[in-house]
Design goal:
Chain A: It holds the Pfam family RNase_PH_C. The complex is a heterodimer of chains A (266) and B (998). Chain A is of the alpha+beta class and 266 residues long. Chain A is built from five helices and ten strands, in the order E-E-E-E-E-H-E-H-E-E-H-E-E-H-H. In chain A, helix 1 crosses helix 2. Classes of the chains: A alpha+beta (266), B alpha+beta (998).
């Protein structure tokens, strides 16, 4: 059956009706979830991830504390119902550990850990639903949850996956596409244009790589705009609720070229 | 930079955009599948001048097509899936050119139902002359639909198609609003074309214009030609006519597939390929593993609509009801001559029995009486596993025409008679019947209902005039499934870029061509081939060594240097399998640049070769053999005749001649050794056709091929090379080496021939081994008849199995032997230009001597087996095509001879078979077989293979007995069959009794 689905048909449509460079619908929910200091629910199409951040707080285990900076610990939990085949993954599952390690190493250079010596930042990633692009969803959600928790970051981290079908590059792959074509996930920092993560589990031709890499970088900027808007409207809603500061209506939610710089104040 | 956007999907749309379903895997696990899709408004309608759709390269004209009778305002057609599933031939026709809107739903459904049709459809979309716009209706927000509860996928798709049609019509109306003060614009209609009456009804209800394919085509300008391309419709769809209504079933229904498969598994039913009997259209057989003899099927009911080549399931009757095969020639053409096309199969009035049925019954009953000895399992077909229907080359039966007025365009039902006698007549409806008479046409079978005596088909295309060279050639190639298209660009791109200018580069250490190659350019090498041979793939040399031994070498064109594994040229060659030689045409396996130039071992030029070099004693005993890639420069290219003359001319004492003589003495010794080991000297009727010139179609004469000493010289060394290579590759790759074998024939095959020989000539044939057979064949001579021995050899050859390629790992070691050559192991190595198996052997040998690593595919047993299956089949087909081509030219030659000699072409012939009402004769001079039929009653002694022609009341001739192996004289005429326009050889006896009046 799977082989009978066309990844990219002659009309330039992908199997879900998108064109090559169209990203899936992205929704961001930054409302409070339980006791967490910051959390975010991010969906890319049918992939949904909830990230809760606790901290910075005192480390539970002394052995893990570092005298000059905070320790980031990432724990990933994949819900049994998130995939097509119902399967319970244990916490020791190697793939999950790897995912956690990837997220951790992505954020270590971005979070200003040196501001919080001898403390710990706990990131709990809960995967609610999967349809490709799991890593990108995890990273985007973690960024937003960290922002929501008020942890200082050097920049946003925006991740997106890309692949090549024959010679045509595609962005933001669904599970169907991920299973079929070589793909790469790129996480970048939009302000500096630096890349914090490139990961690939399939073979991709060198000649194609550069193109995909560049495209994924550009796509990261688009995702950044989306994330920024979400953060801003969440913050203004909070400010409005506190009854001080500018009125909700006063904040210009629409594209504001130097909104970026103001972002740092929040 | 490209534009990257996030596709927003409103939450409210989720009902239409998300789809969740569960599916069960093969292991029984249940998997939840969740899919989403993004609906959009920028999917273009493809109509030029549309202001609402994004501009892409539109293909549909704004006004639609205005030539159709029913739609004066212009129209587009929007075909349903069933149009492509059943009427692909129509859509592919280059006369069918209305603008087509093709829905994504339709494409996907076609793809789901049949991949071959999907591929044809894809080719159509890309075709230049068609105006097809693919509309992605599932992605457009207005036309996307979701399956409702309780709706079948089929109904859902139909609804989607209707919705898209409705949308298109709205879209056209909305985008072209009437402008005030002007007449309202003429709006083209989008018409739903479907074969499904139910769908049409629903469309009608929703106010969508819809039409059936037939009705649509009827309104077209070129309807006469196009209507023929329509596939026969199923009975549930056509309106009842007097002919179809009230028909009785003529055949029993098939069992369901599951019942058949269960029966086969349980051993109650048997599965096999159905093969029809050439001599008797009311008889067929199925070879099944459970019985040694094939299961006999007698009569139409028992053959139950099977067509030659179908995979069928048979039920075998009780042993009481077993019968022997018929010994009468029953010609469908004469027996069914007057069968009416329209009403055939209609029983009509109860008391008046169908004349056809009555006649057939008579035939069967009269045969029954005589069927005593040689009973075979008998049964009937109860189901069909797989139809092997394809397009068949046919002629229109002129008697079945109701009107032969050449300008008549009325719809007629006519019979098409396939060229192959194994196939039943096909009924087809056409409007151009008069124009098709005297043409070879291609016809496909669509279906065969229980109520119809004949299968129904439709016209595909015309090949050309009967007996025109082109039409006959193409029909031959189609009939034997020979791929004859020119090589595509991808294949030609695999050739060396230098083309004709390619030469062996000068010798150097760095050159790729010279790596590990031996320089044999100084050897006195020559090639010996038939006259006008262009693809020279072998050359030979022999010389004395200082130690008194002889060095002999066979040099084969190094095709594997040019044809690399797994590129387009290689896969094409693998699928072609072999070069096909017709009398006037060669269909190459490899592009001709390789075959006739770069790989051809032409004289005076350097060529790459793969050499097998033996050191032999003067008694032709092999001391040592080695294989090497080499570079040779042939010194001469002889024909067999030239080489023979040179060898025999004692004045010639140059090195070349000495080499040939040396080779010849060795060959004679090799041959003697082979014969002593029990090799068979087989014979097949081989004739040569003299052509006036290559352009003219008229062959001048036919003669038997002459065999010279030099033929056998080349043959011996090729055999030796093949055997040596076979040993080497089998040693190195015991699992996957490509070998060739000839299984010993089962002894039962010879029983009849032994019986005939014993009874008629008092000769015995010992078939216990190939050696014994060879010896006893040598004894079968008649001092008065030198040709008798050849005849017996031909008949013995026909009793044998055919040789085949196989993969050494897939059969047991003791069945490797080659029966005819009496060699324990054999392969094909010496003609890589024209046989694909040789290319494989070359690659394996190259790997065996460490020249190059073996490609991974040749390590896989299943892969090698798969390739060899195809090659075996192609090989068989190529042989048959070649023979048929010779037959056709013999027919032409006879015709021209008949004209010169005023219809008195008489030749001597041997009787090879006796029938209850005729004789099978073989004319060795022409290499043709024919049947002499007697209309008058004759006596037939089946046990002694003798017929007795009673004394004729009108003449004074007495009673004459004719038996198998008797020499007779026949008059040969080529008469055009009145019905089919097929030229066929008609033979009548001249001596010992004149049968013209009988």
């Amino acid at each position: 059956m799977g082989s009978r689905v066309e990844i990219l048909n002659d009309g330039g449509f992908r199997s879900d009706g998108r064109r090559q460079f169209e990203l899936r619908d992205m929704t961001i929910d930054l409302s409070q979830q339980g006791q967490a200091d910051g959390c975010a629910v991010v969906t890319h199409g049918l992939t949904q991830v909830l990230v809760s951040v606790f901290g910075p707080r005192e480390a539970k285990m002394r052995s893990q504390t570092m005298h000059d900076r905070a320790n980031i610990s990432v724990e990933v939990n994949v819900a049994a119902f998130s995939t097509g085949e119902r399967r319970k993954r244990t916490r020791g599952d190697k793939r999950i550990l790897e995912l956690a390690a990837t997220i951790k190493s992505t954020f270590e250079p971005v979070v200003q850990t040196n501001l919080y010596p001898r403390s710990q930042i706990d990131v709990y990633v809960q995967v609610l639903q999967q349809d490709g692009g799991l890593l990108q969803a995890c990273i985007n959600a973690t960024t937003l949850a960290l922002v929501n928790a008020g942890i200082p970051l050097l920049d946003f981290v925006c991740a997106v996956s890309g692949g090549v079908h024959s010679t045509s590059p595609l962005l933001d792959l669904t599970l169907l596409e991920e299973n079929d074509i070589p793909n790469v996930t790129v996480a970048m920092m939009p302000k500096t244009g630096k890349v914090t993560l490139v990961t690939m589990e399939t073979r991709l031709h060198v000649d194609r790589f550069e193109e995909i890499f560049r495209l994924a970088g550009d796509a990261g900027k688009v995702i950044h705009g989306e994330m920024k808007n979400a953060v801003r409207s969440r913050t203004s809603a909070l400010v409005a609720a506190m009854g001080s500061g500018p009125r909700v209506g006063g904040v210009d939610v629409a594209a504001d070229k130097d909104g970026d710089d103001r972002m740092n104040e929040y | 930079m490209v534009e990257i956007t996030i596709r927003k999907r409103p939450r409210t749309e989720a009902v239409v955009t998300q789809r969740k379903f569960f599916k069960k895997t093969a292991r029984g696990k249940v998997i939840k599948v969740l899919r989403e899709r993004y609906l959009r408004d920028d999917v273009g309608c493809g109509i030029s001048g549309c202001n609402a759709c994004p501009v892409t390269d539109v293909v549909l004209p704004a006004a639609g097509d205005q030539t159709h009778r029913l739609f004066p305002n212009g129209h587009f057609i929007l075909p349903d899936t069933n149009v492509f599933l059943s009427q692909m031939d129509l859509v592919e026709s280059n006369l069918f050119l209305p603008p087509i809107i093709l829905l994504q739903t339709v494409i996907e459904e076609v793809r789901h139902r049949s991949l071959p049709l999907y591929n044809r459809l894809n080719a159509l979309i890309k075709a230049e002359d068609k105006r097809i716009w693919v509309f992605y209706n599932e992605y457009r927000s207005e036309t996307a639909i979701v399956r409702e509860e309780g709706e079948t996928p089929n109904d859902r798709n139909d609804r989607g198609i209707r919705k898209a049609t409705a949308w298109y019509n709205d879209h056209i109306r909305v985008t072209r609003p009437p402008i005030r003060g002007q007449a309202p614009p003429k709006l083209p209609t989008v018409v739903l074309v479907t074969e499904d009456a139910d769908n049409r009804q629903k469309a009608e209800k929703a106010g969508i214009s819809s039409i059936s394919v037939r009705k649509y085509v009827e309104g077209m300008k070129e309807s006469a030609q196009l209507l023929d391309l329509l596939a026969a419709e199923g009975p549930n769809q056509i309106e009842p006519t007097p002919v179809t209504s009230g028909r009785q079933a003529l055949y029993p229904d098939y069992l369901s597939t599951s019942t058949c498969l269960a029966g086969v598994k349980a051993g109650e039913l048997h599965q096999g390929h159905f093969s029809a009997n050439v001599y008797n259209y009311l008889e067929g057989s199925v070879s099944v593993p459970a019985f040694t003899a094939p299961v006999l099927l007698i009569g139409r009911d028992n053959m139950n609509r099977a067509v030659h080549g179908d995979v069928v399931v048979v039920e075998v009757f009780d042993e009481k009801e077993w019968r022997a095969p018929a010994d009468e020639v029953v010609d469908a053409e004469s027996a069914l001559k007057n069968d009416d096309v329209e009403y055939s199969g209609d029983e009509g009035d109860e008391e008046e029995e169908d004349p056809v049925l009555r006649r057939e019954k008579q035939v069967l009953i009269s045969e029954d009486v005589k069927r005593t000895a040689g009973k075979q399992p008998t049964g009937r077909i109860v189901g069909i596993i797989k139809r092997n229907w394809r397009a068949y080359v046919c002629h229109i039966d002129s008697t079945s025409l109701t009107s032969s007025n050449p300008t008549s365009l009325s719809q007629q039902t006519v019979f098409a008679t396939p060229v192959s006698r194994l196939l039943p007549r096909i009924r087809l409806r056409t409007r151009q019947a008069p124009a098709l008479i005297g043409q070879k046409i291609l016809v496909t079978i669509d279906r065969w209902d229980v109520t119809s005596r004949y299968p129904e088909g439709h016209f595909v295309r015309s090949l050309g005039k009967v007996e025109s060279k082109e039409a006959e050639q193409e029909s031959l190639l189609l009939e034997f499934d020979v791929p004859y298209r020119p090589f595509g660009k991808a294949i030609l791109d695999c050739l060396p870029p230098e083309g004709e200018q390619w030469v062996v580069p000068p010798k150097s250490d760095t050159s790729l061509e010279w790596r590990d190659r031996e320089d044999l350019r100084d050897l006195i090498v020559c090639s010996i081939d038939p006259p006008n041979c262009q693809d020279i793939d072998d050359a030979l040399h022999a010389r004395y060594l200082p130690n008194g031994n002889i060095e002999a070498g066979v040099h084969i064109a190094d095709v594997s240097h040019f044809v690399h594994p797994d590129n387009p040229m290689d896969s094409e060659a693998a699928s072609r399998g072999t070069t096909v030689y017709l009398v006037d045409k060669r269909i190459d396996m490899l592009p001709s640049l390789l075959g006739t130039n770069l790989c051809s071992l032409r004289p005076y030029v350097e060529r790459l070769a793969f050499s097998t070099i033996w050191e032999m004693t003067a008694d032709a005993e092999i001391v040592n053999v080695r294989f090497t890639k080499s570079v040779i420069a042939s010194k001469a290219a002889f024909t067999y005749e030239e080489a023979q003359l040179r060898k025999d001319d004692q004045n010639m004492q140059d090195e070349l001649t000495l080499g040939i003589r040396l080779l010849n003495t060795l060959a004679q010794k090799l041959r003697a050794g082979r014969m002593a080991a029990g090799a068979l000297n087989l014979a097949s009727p081989e004739v040569k056709i003299h052509m006036d010139s290559s352009e003219s179609a008229e062959p001048l004469d036919v003669e038997q091929k002459q065999l010279r000493e030099t033929n056998s010289l080349v043959e011996e060394f090729m055999l030796l090379a093949n055997i040596s290579v076979a040993k080497k590759i089998q040693e190195t790759f015991p699992q996957t080496s490509v070998l060739r074998r000839h299984l010993p024939p089962p002894r039962t095959n010879f029983e009849k021939l032994q019986d005939i020989l014993m009874k008629r000539k008092g000769m015995a044939l010992d078939v216990s081994s190939s050696g014994a057979l060879a010896a006893s064949l040598d004894r079968c001579t008649d001092p008065n008849e030198p040709a008798f021995n050849t005849l017996v050899r031909i008949m013995a050859t026909r009793c044998m199995l055919s040789a085949e390629y196989f993969c050494s790992g897939s059969v047991s070691r003791d069945t490797f032997g080659h029966y005819g050559l009496a060699s324990p192991i054999y392969t094909h190595f010496t003609s890589p230009i024209r046989r694909y198996a040789d290319v494989l052997a070359h690659r394996q040998l190259a790997a065996a001597i460490g020249y190059s690593p073996l490609h991974a595919s040749l390590h896989s047993k299943s892969h090698v087996e798969r390739i060899l299956d195809i090659v075996n089949r192609r090989h068989r087909m190529a042989q048959m095509a070649g023979r048929a081509s010779v037959e056709f030219y013999v027919g032409l030659a006879l015709k021209s001879r008949n004209e010169r000699e005023k219809g008195r072409v008489q030749e001597e012939a041997f009787v090879i078979r006796t029938f209850r009402n005729g004789l099978g004769v073989f004319v060795s001079k022409l290499g043709i077989e024919g049947i002499v039929m007697f209309k008058r009653e004759i006596q037939f002694d089946a046990d002694n293979y003798v017929i007795t022609v009673p004394a004729s009341p009108t003449s004074d001739a007495g009673e004459v007995k004719i038996g198998v192996f008797d020499k007779v004289t026949v008059n040969i005429e080529v008469e055009k069959d009145k019905n089919t326009q097929r030229g066929r050889v008609k033979m009548t006896l001249v001596h010992p009794v004149d049968s013209t009046s009988m």
